Amino acid sequence: MLKKVLVANRGEIAVRIIRACREMGIRTIAIYSEADKEALHTKLADEAICIGPAPSRKSYLNMKAILEAACLMGADSIHPGFGFLSENPKFAKICEEIGIKFIGPNSNLIELLGNKSEAKQTMKTAGIPVVPGSDGILTSKEEAIKLAEQIKYPVMLKASAGGGGKGIRIVNSKNELEKAYDLVKQEAKMAFNDDKIYLEKVIENPRHIEFQILADEYGNCIHLGERDCTIQRKNQKVIEETPSSIIDEKTREKMGQIAIKAVKEIGYTNAGTIEFLVDKNKNFYFMEMNTRIQVEHGITEMVTGVDLVKEQIKIASGEKLEYKQKDIQMKGYSIEARINAENPSKNFMPCPGIIAGLHLPGGNGIRIDTAIYSGYTIPPTYDSMIAKIIAHGKTRQEAIAKLKSAVAELVVEGIDTNVEFILEILNNADFVINNYDTSFIEKELKQTQNGQGGKNDN
Question: Looking at residue 382, what DSSP letter applies?
Answer without folding.
Answer: S
